[in-house]
Amino acid sequence: MSAENSDMTGRVCLVTGANSGIGKATAIELARQGASVVMVCRDRSRGEAAQAEIQARSGSKQVDLLLADLSSQEEIHRLASEFQAKYDRLHVLVNNAGVVNSKRKLTIDGLELTFALNHLGYFLLTNLLLAEIKASGTPERKARIVNVSSEAQAAGVINFGDLQLEKNYGELRAYAQSKLANILFTYELARRLKGTNVTANVLHPGVVRTNFAGDSTGLFGILIKLGRVFEISAEKGARTPVYLASSPEVEGISGQYFSNKKPRKSSRISYDQTAQELLWHESARLTGLEID
Ligand code: NAP
Q1: Which residue is catalytic, options 87, 122, 175, 271?
Q2: Is ligand 1 within 6 A of the CB of residue 156?
Q3: Most exposed residue of 62, 74, 154, 158, measured as fewest CB within 10 angstroms of its CB?
Q4: Ramachandran quadrant class, 214 (left: phi over 0; alpha: psi -120 to 50; beta: rest)
Q5: Does the beta carbon of 22 sit less than 6 angstroms from any atom of ligand 1?
Q6: Of residues 169, 71, 188, the one with CA closest to residue 120
């Protein structure tokens, strides 16, 4: 079976940020491959419009919509409960929703928004749904966690003394920290999942023409806008997340960083196990999860 023709019939796949860009294109392709897709969006009307488009473009009616603002921990808990009330299996979780913010903003929980949404949102949702994910994998066909990061990880530093960037906020600093956090989180998660029927991988989708950084007035936003000439379509940007979500070629592969459907090296610091563990514990503390 080729990567492009994976059979996802009967597989439940949850995709966050599925109303736009890479998330929407990923949802369309997974639905086209036969998966039952659960979209997570924060805005009902944008979500419903995208749901209708995903159904039309994939030719599948198995596209559900759940609403949640993923920058709010209470909403993530509610989302997980709503999902669990409707589904008892989750074969693929694609953590994709992300932002960049020119100005430092706080979430309802009092956390810096970029870190809270781009990293803690992935961390909390994954951990709340882990029992369903573990119950869905088999030795022959493992369940998969797919985290959308960015090559901005290469510029990332985790400011353990100031994770909320209270002292020195910068748009790129905050974004790169959150995208490096995606990688540290995935590597730690994959290690914790060894011996289970679940894999976890992380990826850079390419430089993709989406709504991303559309509101940014900072240097990073300007660089993104200048880079528009090099951008690929959302469909091309979805190729690596779809590959990691469904291709038989990566069955059993875990704890890897991918770009353009190939494993790549991530930044040196991302392989630091002490940093991975420290981030895990800080993330558990900040989300109030009682996990070691
Ligand atoms: P996008 O078109 O702006 O999509 C981002 C998605 O995240 C949207 O569905 C957005 O919903 C959702 N989102 C934002 N804040 C949210 C919140 N508080 N709660 C729930 N959902 C929220 O951008 P994209 O390029 O597809 O980005 C997807 C991922 O790719 C991000 O993680 C980004 O870091 C990564 N990435 C993108 C590029 C690129 O070149 N585009 C490169 C590397 C990595 P709304 O529509 O309601 O805002």
Answers
A1: 175
A2: no
A3: 74
A4: alpha
A5: yes
A6: 71
Atom of ligand 1 nearest to the CA of 17: 9
**Of ligand 1's atoms, which has the minimum distance to the CA of residue 97?**
7
Going from the C-alpha of 205 to that of each of 26, 81, 208, 234, 243, the distances in angstroms are: 11, 30, 7, 9, 11
Average pLDDT of span 120-126: 98
Q: If you take atom 33 of ligand 1, which residue's CA is the nearest one? A: 98
Separation between Cα atoms, residue 242 and residue 192, nearest integer Å: 23
Looking at ligand 1, which atom is closest to the CA of residue 148? 32
Residue 2 has pLDDT above 80, yes or no: no
Question: What number of CA atoms fall less than 13 Å from residue 105's CA on the CB side?
Answer: 13
Q: In what order do the strands lie in the sheet with 257-259?
A: 63-67, 36-41, 12-16, 92-95, 143-148, 198-204, 257-259, 262-264
Classified by CATH at the fold level, domain 12-287 comes out as Rossmann fold (3.40.50)
122 is catalytic: no
